[in-house]
Amino acid sequence: MAINDxxxxxxxxxxxxxxxxxxxxxxxxxxxxxxxxxxxRALKNQPDVEIVxxxxxxPGKAAKFFEEGGVEGVKTDYASHKEMIDDKxxxxxxxxxxxxxxxxxxxxxxxxxxxxxxxxxxPFTVTLEEAVEVMKAExxxxxxxxxxxxxxxxxxxKMIKRIVESGELGKIYYIQTxxxxxxxxxxxxxxxxxxxxxxxxxxxxxxxxxxxxxxLNAVGYPKPLTVTGYKSAFFGxxxxxxxxVKSGHPEYAEKFGVDDFAAGFVRLEGDIILDFRISWAMNMxxxxxxxxxxxxxxxxxxxTECWNGSIGGPLKIYHEVAGSQVCTEIPVQKNEGPxxxxxxxxxxxxxxxxxxxxxxxxxQIVINQAILDGICKSAELGHEIEITIPEV
Length: 392
Ligand SMILES: NC(=O)c1ccc[n+]([C@@H]2O[C@H](COP(=O)([O-])OP(=O)(O)OC[C@H]3O[C@@H](n4cnc5c(N)ncnc54)[C@H](O)[C@@H]3O)[C@@H](O)[C@H]2O)c1
Fold this sequence. Notes:
Elements: E1 25-30, H1 34-44, E2 49-55, H2 61-68, H3 81-86, E3 94-97, H4 105-113, E4 117-120, H5 128-141, E5 145-147, H6 155-166, E6 172-180, H7 203-218, E7 224-232, H8 242-247, H9 252-255, E8 261-268, E9 272-279, E10 290-294, E11 297-301, E12 315-321, E13 324-330, H10 340-354, H11 362-381, E14 385-386
Parallel strand pairs: 1-2, 1-3, 3-4, 4-5, 6-9
Antiparallel strand pairs: 6-10, 7-8, 7-14, 8-9, 10-11, 11-12, 12-13
Helix pairs in contact: 1-10, 4-5, 5-11, 6-7, 7-11
The structure holds nicotinamide-adenine-dinucleotide.
């Protein structure tokens, strides 16, 4: 059974708004590595944005980044994010933070304390405690803090949320999510993802946070109550790991200080169970499809080979119609118009300029972070733990 004809029931109403370019929105980059390139391309396409500054801990990296990115007149002679933020001649409206995970909290807090809006890359932070400190600074500043989960802007992710919100599945009691790579520890640009001092968390923070967001956002981000967590690093710490051998970097095994596989069993508010697993490397082709089980219907979200921010095939709703068990297939939705990154930066800028709320708010993503953090803490302790998210 296909429901193409009925899809309009799930369609969103889009309204085009024109962009006021009379005053430029002045933005600075903190961190000029790989993902900063995606931010640069997206921001260059915004007619009301001026990229005025950028900094990186590695001397000369920021200047080279903007030169190669074709943006002129960007001030880059700063040794740290503090120096750039302290330069009041820049008249910054916002910063985009594209640093490795361990350097998310400190620049975000400093920027907020200095009255700047912040677009922060994912994961929110490494620990729950850090996320809470960032939220305190956010609250005090009254500025916008939005976190970089652009996959939730994918039309398929929006469809998943609309299906849940439509009530089609009934009361949700079980969600299963995660993602897997068979051999995919990310080291193409060095070791910032795999070292404890820079990455802090591995597959959990890299792709785990996205797969959690996919379902938690759909079911309304219920708070976690308890978690049993597991993490391991069998592949990353092995000098014979095939991709180290192929790339000629067996020494990465010694640098590896994070997880390459993690799993968690989480009790959520509202009597929902979350079953989660995530992998950068494992001896399996997939960690399984994502599932949402409800009293009236179940939703299957086919996994992709490697997390790519979308879905691996049509969504399937398993339910009963007139006493018969049927499966309704929902075709893969196309993403039209600007890239997800452009949509992400545009939503952030609009919120800053129009006094709106953060498009991807810390109040939701702190729950995501609490689960990642709970998995790490439970794994270290070797037993189930309770999770409490401090009020900010
Ligand atoms: N949204 C996405 O699709 C996506 C994709 C990839 C990575 N990311 C996230 O982006 C972040 C960065 O990833 P990456 O691949 O660009 O890493 P990277 O190592 O290539 O770049 C990070 C850069 O930040 C610099 N840096 C660190 N701390 C700094 C500080 N305090 N001030 C100035 N510069 C600082 C480093 O020197 C480095 O050049 C990670 O947290 C990652 O999870 C997001």
